[in-house]
Design goal:
- It is a single chain.
- With about 210 residues, the chain is of the alpha+beta class.
- It folds into 2 domains: about 25-60, no CATH class; about 75-205, GTP Cyclohydrolase I, domain 2 (2-Layer Sandwich).
- It contains 8 helices and 7 strands, in the order ααααββββαβαββαα.
- The chain has a 5-stranded mixed beta sheet with strand order 5-2-3-6-7, sandwiched between helices.
- Strand 2 and strand 3 (about 100-110) form a beta hairpin.
- Helix 1 (about 5-15) runs antiparallel to helix 6, helix 2 (about 25-35) packs across helix 3 (about 50-60) and helix 5 (about 120-130) packs across helix 6.
- The longest helix has 16 residues, at about 135-150.
- The radius of gyration is 20 Å and the shape is globular.
Length: about 210
């Protein structure tokens, strides 16, 4: 880790909570919502819904309670490789913090190692760490980049996220084909046009449109 300071990873991870999610409070809130909708929470079909929703949020918001150090689990390796490392088309699912509706898509993550690489499976887990919470796509993109930069101290980090937002598809503006793309470029990817272009060429090569 950069400066060998694990506290920085917790700071970047933001809102790491050690306490369990309050399932009983969620169940009671869902019962009240159902009643506010004009429904009967005790009828067949709904009687177990509050418990199901509480379990669902425990899974969808797991990023708040994922320990970043335990997730990395020492999967850092000293190597003499200094070319781009890219993991593309990482699917993710998140919840918009404005309407608590899902947004989903794919993330592309690259870095230039400075004598150290991370295990392949950890990059999708880093994406999940920040997507499995109430989120903004713009913030999520930057947090992924900042986390990898702090963890590996590479020459550069690049993250591009493409998202489909149900809050803009099933309500409000109701534009079903709209896609949102956000990016974060750090180090060599920001300062070198050639490096940035290599990354963008790699993620566009053979890419297919996102389908919903």
């Amino acid at each position: 880790m950069n400066n060998e300071d694990p506290k920085r990873l917790y700071d970047i991870s933001n809102l790491f909570l050690e306490s369990d999610i309050d399932e009983a409070a969620i169940e009671e809130a869902i019962k009240q919502l159902l009643q506010a909708f004009g429904e009967d929470p005790g009828r067949v079909g709904l009687e177990r819904t509050p418990g199901r929703v509480a379990q669902m949020y425990k899974e969808l918001l797991a990023g708040y309670r994922t320990d970043p150090l335990a997730m990395v689990n020492d999967a850092l390796f000293e190597v003499s490789y200094d070319e781009m490392v890219l993991v593309r088309d990482i699917e993710f699912y998140s919840l918009c913090e404005h309407h608590m509706l899902p947004f989903m898509g794919r993330a592309h993550v690259a870095y230039f190692p400075r004598g150290k690489v991370i295990g392949l499976s950890k990059i999708p887990r880093i994406v999940d760490l920040f997507s499995r919470r109430l989120q903004l796509q713009e913030r999520m993109t930057r947090l992924i980049a900042d986390f990898i930069e702090e963890l590996l101290d590479p020459h550069g980090v690049a993250v591009v996220v493409e998202g489909l937002h149900l809050c803009a598809m099933m309500r409000g503006v109701q534009k079903h084909e709209a896609r949102m793309t956000t990016s974060a470029m750090l180090g060599a990817f920001r300062t070198s046009i050639a490096t940035r272009q290599e990354f963008l060429d790699n993620i566009s090569r053979g890419a297919s449109p996102m389908k919903f």
